[in-house]
Specification:
five-stranded parallel sheet; about 180 residues; alpha/beta; four-stranded mixed sheet; 9 strands; about 20% strand; Rossmann fold
């Protein structure tokens, strides 16, 4: 595989989906991976393929995913055809999870992590605006200690607390051919 794979990870409310959409607009040459998730497609958020748990398991057993993971009671899969995209030399980007980064790095040595963060008060306000969780749920979510990022994988830290343009500039710098080194 000669293309680079960029995993966008960070806490809920950090603006990962918004940043990915901005990157996609700025870099139409970049392959944006459409995840398969065990939730209804009408649930909104990022563009994804919603499937039932039974369909997800059938696909997983058939080798349809390059890698997959569980988080927040859902299953997530990255389609196996991503390997063909990377083999052409094309760079790709996906919304990931810390839980699967070590597996992803083992399968795709050219993995680079874009770690999106935001200040706690920004996260809390964004989560509250979604209206999906109670204030207590949000407080618990913010109090959780994040899992560590895997050692040896390049990471670019992106603070998305302020203007989207600032975070986008940082992300695009990491995506630049010379910007793939850890920072």
């Amino acid at each position: 595989m000669s293309g680079r794979l960029f995993a966008v990870v960070g806490p809920s409310g950090s603006g990962k989906d918004t940043l990915i959409a901005a990157i996609a607009q700025a870099r139409p040459d970049l392959h944006i991976v459409r995840r398969v998730i065990t939730r209804p497609s009408a649930a909104g958020g990022e563009p994804f393929e919603g499937v039932t748990p039974a369909e997800f398991e059938r696909r997983r057993a058939a080798g349809a995913f390059l890698f997959d993971w569980q988080a927040h009671g859902l299953s997530y899969g990255i389609p196996a055809d991503l390997a063909r995209v990377l083999a052409t030399g094309r760079d790709a980007l996906f919304n990931g999870s810390r839980a699967m980064l070590a597996e992803a790095a083992a399968k795709v040595p050219a993995l680079h992590i874009l770690h999106v963060t935001a200040r706690p008060e920004v996260l809390a306000a964004r989560l509250a605006a979604r209206g999906r969780e109670t204030p207590e749920d949000i407080a618990r979510r913010l109090a959780r200690a994040p899992a560590p990022l895997p050692p040896g994988v390049p990471v670019t830290e992106i603070d998305n607390s302020g203007a989207l343009g600032d975070a986008l500039h940082r992300a695009l710098s990491a995506l630049a051919a010379e910007g793939a080194a850890a920072s």
